[in-house]
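[INFO] parsing input record for DUF1127 domain-containing protein
[DEBUG] input buffer:
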Amino acid sequence: MSMMTAEGRPHTDSNAVARLLHAVAAPFRMIGEARDRMLAFEALDRKTDAELARMGLRREEIARRVFGLR
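[DEBUG] output buffer:
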């Protein structure tokens, strides 16, 4: 028996497996991205105020820069 997706395409087991693998991998990608951002934050935080100023950055702006906050 063949099932159809909402878009009218055949639903195959390979699609289900791909979706499952994507869902399982997503948290690991998020952890990796969070780790990279924390490393970037720590690297900037270790800089002196003068070094940050040469980069056009103030200490209180580090989180906004690294995490894309407003």
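[INFO] The longest helix spans residues 13-46.
[INFO] shutting down worker
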